[in-house]
Amino acid sequence: MPFYQFTVPTGGATLDHKAEVAAAMTKVHAEVTGAPGTYVQCSFTEVAPGSVFVAGEAVEGPRMVGLIRSGRSPEVRAKLISGLADAWCAITGDAKEDLGIFIVEIPGANVMEAGAILPESSEDVGAIL
After folding, report:
1. What pLDDT digit, counting tens, does each position of 65-123 carry?
2. CA-atom Rg of the chain in angstroms
3. What is the DSSP letter of 61?
4. How many degrees, rounded to 5, is the angle at CA 21 between CA 20 and CA 27?
5. What SS3 class is residue 89?
6. Count of CB atoms within 10 A of residue 23's CB?
7. CB of 13 within 8 A of CB of 93?
């Protein structure tokens, strides 16, 4: 279920390393949450410079919105966000201060994959809540 959507300005380092970033996000998510890596999905969207704004001002730093199943503790979510940022920056050379990472929690019952409604995160074997 986790779905990580990257929005990256044209020319951003993330675009040059999509496969590496996706592999790293998968590894971090699986290690931090205990969920199977086979659940992790990543998508990359390239946007023209001047398409991402913060406080009404254009910024060049990449953004990521991650949809994850609800039920994890604040400590696990913080470890997940930090791990994702660290891995992303190590691969791309982006500064952490230039990233935007947003994690949105949704119930497993609100997701269908491969024709099946997902279980809640607490039902995963080995889940870390």
Report:
1. 999 999 999 999 999 999 999 999 999 999 999 999 999 999 988 988 888 888 888 77
2. 15
3. S
4. 90
5. helix
6. 16
7. yes
